[in-house]
Design brief:
Blueprint: E1 2-3, H1 13-19, E2 20-22, E3 26-30, H2 39-44, E4 49-54, E5 70-75, E6 78-83, H3 93-106, E7 132-139, E8 142-148
Antiparallel strand pairs: 1-2, 3-4, 5-6, 5-7, 7-8
Amino acid sequence: VYVARDMLEGADRATARAAIASIGPAIELADVNFPPEDVEAILAGNVYNRRVILGRSDSSRAGCVLDGLVGRIYRNGKEMAATTDPQALTGDLIDIVCHVADLLAALGEMLRAGEVIITGSIVPPIWIESKEEIRYTLDPIDTISINLRPA
């Protein structure tokens, strides 16, 4: 979700909807390199996040227009997951935008225009190994991929 306007704590759904400039695909690379029971280590390690790949965003989806979106995940060229409901696992995207604005405000920050919110995975997390290619198609917006190879 690409943010078009600053948002303050306690914003309603209409304000959050108006703050959404566009929607696009993203791939988050996470490295679960220590047990998930160690909350302090998870938070200190940026919640396993290592990199994010952003695809092209679609401004015709401003305000959180999701009609007709189809997400497909391919591993090494073979489709392994698909959904026509990008909110089924993440929850309501507008609610997520409101939550992020409220959380940032509680920490003395603000959700600002130009920022991007990675809203969660539209399919269950995928465990990958080196020597794999993962491709994410968010039709009709864009396709992005990562090709993992050992160093």
